[in-house]
Write a structure and sequence with these properties.
The protein has 296 residues and is α/β, with parallel strands linked by helices. 28% of the residues lie in helices and 19% in strands. The chain is built from 6 helices and 8 strands; from the N terminus they run E-H-E-H-E-H-E-H-E-E-E-H-E-H. An 8-stranded mixed beta sheet has the order 3-2-1-4-7-5-8-6, sandwiched between helices. The N and C termini lie far apart (60 Å).
Length: 296
């Protein structure tokens, strides 16, 4: 069934994790209201932790004045690993959903609460509900280039790209040919006119989940190990490394529910400046390595 109107006949929980997001929150919260407006009924669940920039104040002020029904969760959390912090916050969101019987809703829209969602194509978002096939997860794409390689897994490349054995591949920059067969992407970009792309895992800062397909599933990031099986620790920070929380979450969805996961090329949000900066670094070192190879 195709939906062309601005009102989808579904109920949705719109959720996200926020930490030191004050700069971008007003834009993201506006987009939450826009997305909520296309559903028959909606609830908002946001989990904040350890912000020092006024993020919690902004969330509380917004929840007091918005017409949306909100659950703002906030607890101190002193985990050094960013992945573990985000996984904890996402699990708190799932606990809140189940505690308040919101798992009876049709969809969960999980969003990052930073710059990546300052702009969202609502028309692109709605296309996810127009495709003539069943799906369990639809995730976002970006116009300039696809950035979320940490969450991306495909049949061709089902490996953590940041693992100790794989980091050397990043001398090739951010070419999607590592994950996809030729014709799927345009180098660093996924063309907006493309059909949805089946993957094992993805995110891109914004994902739509069929609620029934996350039953019994939690975020359990896996440890990153060295070749000898010991814990891999980042050489610069000394922090134990973990794989992306989305990768294990989506694997559970596939194992438990046979979930079908897609990137929707038309569902466009912003690319994050942090990831643009990383890409510039990768390209710089790639050029240096290439020049050195030519000299030898």
């Amino acid at each position: 069934m195709r939906y062309r109107s601005n009102l989808l006949p579904f109920r949705a929980v719109i959720a996200g994790c926020a930490r030191n997001s004050a700069r971008d929150l007003p834009f993201v919260l506006r987009n939450i209201e826009r997305i909520a407006g296309v559903f028959k009924q909606s609830r908002v669940v946001i989990c904040e932790n350890d912000s020092v920039d006024g993020t919690l104040d902004i969330l509380n002020q917004w929840s007091a004045k918005t017409n949306l029904k909100c659950h703002i969760l906030s607890e101190p959390l002193r985990l050094r690993s960013r992945v573990l912090r985000i996984a904890w916050a996402r699990n708190r969101i799932l606990e809140c959903i189940r505690l308040h019987a919101l798992d009876s809703y049709d969809y969960l829209v999980m969003m990052d609460m930073d710059e990546v969602n300052k702009r969202i194509s609502l028309r692109g978002f709605l296309t996810s509900f127009n495709y003539p096939f069943d799906w369990d997860v639809m995730c976002a794409n970006q116009l300039d280039y696809y950035y979320d390689f940490f969450a991306l897994r495909t049949d061709k490349y089902d490996i953590n790209p940041w693992g100790p054995a794989e980091r050397h591949r990043w001398t090739d920059g951010t070419d999607l040919s590592l994950w996809f067969e030729p014709g799927v992407s345009g180098g660093k970009r996924i063309p907006v006119n493309s059909d949805p792309i089946p993957v094992l895992s993805c995110f891109g800062g914004l994902g739509i989940y069929r609620m029934s397909s996350i039953e019994g599933v939690t975020y359990k990031p896996e440890r990153v190990l060295n070749e000898d099986g010991s814990q891999f620790t980042h050489p610069d920070t000394g922090i134990d490394e973990y794989d992306c929380e989305h990768a294990s979450f989506h694997k559970q969805m596939r194992d438990r529910h046979g979930a079908k996961i897609y990137i929707n090329p038309r569902m466009i949000n912003n690319a994050n400046r942090y990831h643009r900066f990383l890409d510039l670094i990768f390209r710089f070192f790639h050029l240096r390595i290439t020049k050195n190879d030519r000299k030898q």
